[in-house]
Design a protein that fits this description.
By secondary structure, the protein is an alpha/beta fold. It is 51% helix and 18% strand. A five-stranded mixed sheet has the order 1-3-2-6-7, with helices on both faces. It has a two-stranded antiparallel ribbon with strand order 4-5.
């Protein structure tokens, strides 16, 4: 009886060790996978919240519309830059919300359209607009309007490095912004 129990415990320990090693291997493989530098991995708001919490990454919510000229400029000039794409795909969960869309999201059982999310929940009154959130969905703050590459990277590095807790954004930019703090 004691031998049988000992064998069962050994087998159980071996299985648990293999499972732990397999999980570690999967995590290491995810870290080693090359980051997409050809396009931003945009998600819907509800999907992005789940992914950010799972990965522990901050969230960048991009509010846009089909008729917004400066949104198109962001798409053509800033969001095509390899350094922006790589940085967002490595460091953030990027969410795109169409401020005119009636597409219904399911946020933890709460149904809301993209349009109502933009207008009621985030008070977006002009496009493009950005909201930055912590990985748990807590709001950090907004950025409004078109952002050229350097200005956009200043904002995103500031948020990623959680510098909002220790220095004002104006001081951060005055001190050299993302180029100094990379």
């Amino acid at each position: 009886m004691k031998k049988t129990l000992a064998v069962i415990l050994l087998i159980l320990m071996a299985v648990l060790n293999l499972a732990a090693a397999d999980k570690t291997d999967k995590q290491e493989n995810q870290k080693r996978q090359p980051v997409n530098t050809t396009e931003i991995n945009w998600l819907k708001y509800d999907e992005g919240l789940v992914r950010a919490e799972k990965l522990g990454r901050p969230i960048m919510v991009y509010f846009t519309t089909s008729w917004c000229g400066y949104c198109k400029k962001m798409q053509k000039e800033t969001f095509v830059r390899p350094e922006v794409i790589k940085f967002l795909n490595e460091s953030f969960v990027s969410i795109k919300v169409n401020g005119d869309s009636k597409y219904e999201l399911d946020v933890n059982g709460y149904k809301i359209t993209e349009r109502n999310l933009a207008r009621a929940e985030f008070r977006v009154s002009g496009y493009p607009a950005f909201w930055f959130l912590k990985s748990d969905g807590e709001k950090i703050g907004p950025a409004k309007g078109y952002k050229p590459t350097h200005a956009f990277l200043d904002i995103t590095y500031y948020v990623k490095d959680e510098l909002y807790d220790s220095i004002s954004f104006a001081e951060y930019v005055k001190n050299g912004g993302y180029k100094v703090n990379k």
